[in-house]
Design goal:
Blueprint lengths: L20 H13 L5 H8 L3 H13 L3 E4 L3 E4 L1 H11 L3 H17 L2 E8 L2 E8 L14 E3 L4 H8 L4 H6 L11 H14 L2 E4 L6 E9 L5 E10 H4 L3 H22 L1
Antiparallel strand pairs: 1-2, 3-4, 3-8, 4-5, 6-7, 7-8
Helix pairs in contact: 1-2, 1-3, 5-10, 6-8
């Protein structure tokens, strides 16, 4: 339960002299999303006193909105991811993108997914499965890394906080790229407009992804196809990048047309 007796302070969000407890809590979450990790980082980012920051952090942890992760510091908590999964089921993006995903599956014969970035992860908001008996299955609501897998690398290639994310990169398989290779690769991804992965996040799985841009030019989502390496091969981008990028452009048109 929130401590409603916390002293009111002037917060950084809008300069109002009396900022409510909800605004202060959101300011903490905003600071973590922007890259603040340690307690001192959060005090500095929000401008709140150490005692108020401590009590807000404890309340957010108790409710699952923040989590403390070893030497990494504070990260967005699992409850936010669950709420995001529920909220995205209502997003127009999911409905508008559905036909493009279904067409992508028809064109490639492989499973297709649509992802949004959620904090330091990517969140699957829609998934259309291949009719092949051997296929990849990504559940709606699944949260996956940004530093492994083709869709993660798409978000990473356009992320303003890419260097911070790279610092937390870890191996998932023997094929996961080193930080140096990943840094070089995302430069190429941003230039050519698509990414591929061959067993980097999950053994035996290959994928190709492309960004979906909003009207402001920012990456709104990532669209992917994925399947077993034995079908997609060791260079899946050569085979599927055109279809995946085409699906991304179809989604963008659907968003513009409403």
């Amino acid at each position: 339960m929130w401590d409603m007796s916390l002293p009111r302070e002037q917060g950084p969000r809008d300069g109002r002299p009396n900022v409510g407890v909800l605004d202060r809590a959101v300011a903490i979450l905003d600071a973590v999303e922007a890259g603040a990790r340690s307690f001192s980082d959060l005090v500095e980012a929000t401008g709140y006193s150490r005692s108020t920051t401590h009590r807000l952090i404890r309340a957010l942890e108790d409710h699952g909105f923040l989590a403390a992760v070893g030497s990494v510091g504070y990260v967005l908590g699992p409850r936010l991811l669950r709420l995001a999964a529920t909220a995205t089921r209502e997003l127009p993006l999911r409905d508008l993108a559905r036909s493009a995903l279904e067409l992508l599956v028809k064109r490639t014969g492989e499973s297709a997914q649509l992802y949004l970035r959620s904090g330091d992860h990517r969140l699957c908001i829609d998934s259309v499965q291949s009719s092949n008996e051997l296929r990849t299955i990504v559940d709606v609501g699944a949260t996956l890394p940004l530093t492994a897998g083709s869709a993660g690398k798409v978000f990473l290639a356009w992320a303003p906080d890419a260097e911070r994310l790279l610092e937390s990169a870890r191996p998932f398989t023997s094929a996961t790229l080193s930080v140096d290779r990943l840094r070089r690769q995302i430069t190429t991804i941003a230039r050519r407009g698509w990414a591929e992965s061959v067993g980097e996040r999950e053994v035996g799985v290959a994928s190709v992804s492309a960004p979906v841009f909003g009207e402001d030019g920012a990456v709104l989502a990532a669209v992917s196809v994925s399947g077993p390496i034995q079908r997609l091969g060791r260079a899946p981008g050569k085979r599927y990048s055109g279809a995946v990028a085409g699906a991304a452009r179809e989604i963008e048109r659907a968003l513009r047309d409403g």
